[in-house]
Amino acid sequence: QPTLFPYTTLFRSTRAAPTGAALPVALRASASDGVAGITRIAETAGGGSWSLRGQRFEFADNFGEITADIDLGERGYGVGLRLTVDPYDQSAWLGTDIRLLLNFSTSGALLAGNSLTGDVDALAIALDQTPWVVSEGAVLHLSRSASVLETYATFAGTDVPVTGFVVDSLRDQFWLANSHRLWRIPFRRGDATGTDIASVDEPRAIALDS
After folding, report:
1. pTM (two decimals)
2. What confidence tens digit (pLDDT) does each residue in 46-91 have?
3. Which residues contact residue 183 at a Cβ distance below 8 angstroms, ignoring those fewer than 6 apart?
């Protein structure tokens, strides 16, 4: 079952994960006034960290050496808004304000990318290293090359921001929350009809116990 956290800061343990489970990643996110001031920091299991501040996107290894320094604006990628880390290869998936989904290696190389039809509201990485995206109330499952594989309709809508999104690869389902509801949606059903819906008092984040 997912754990709900009513906080804006979340840290996960960096203990070794059991076989078959996703490697742990610590995530800390904060926001200040204006899009350009938004900051995201995502730490990798190897001790490195990805940091995002507006159009500057960097990776520093566990010794603090910056191995990727990406000027998103200079490359025409827009402003970074959503960030998640692939725990297996430490690459980062990034959603930008011009509806791009991009995957960067720790050296700064662009590994994959795609232009989406809607904003990237939330990101998650499954056990098979494929990205999942919440966009305008729908959930998109993409390949590692960033091509869209499947689309799932939900009841989440677009009027209330997504506050939590996790993918449970072991049970073929994902969990989605906004400030009023929590949904559990199986992969193969294709829509949210008949799925579990619970009333939750203003959840801020979700973490899945692998």
Report:
1. 0.75
2. 889 999 887 899 999 989 899 999 999 999 999 998 999 998 999 9
3. 154, 155, 156, 175, 176, 177, 192, 195, 196, 197
